[in-house]
Write a structure and sequence with these properties.
Length: 76
């Protein structure tokens, strides 16, 4: 099982980069199958590059730093 606190701590490391562009990220859920559900807020919420931010930024870093993370998906 993925440690939710560990995921949250890594998101705290990523957050200043998002804040610099007027955005933010909120942890919604960590599923048993390794998916991290997040909600992008602020400028990131409607940004056309938000999928790139999720895949190339948030997901890549979480996979590197938190064992068991298989994907980062946006909240529905």
């Amino acid at each position: 099982m993925i440690d939710r606190e560990e995921v949250s701590a890594v998101l705290d490391l990523i957050r200043p980069s998002l804040n610099a562009d007027g955005g933010d990220v909120t942890l919604v859920d960590v599923t048993e199958d390794g998916k991290v559900v997040v909600e992008l807020t602020g400028a990131c919420k409607g940004c056309p590059l938000s999928q790139l931010t999720l895949a190339n930024g948030i997901e890549r870093i979480l996979k590197e730093r938190v064992p068991g993370v298989v994907a980062v998906v946006p909240a529905e």
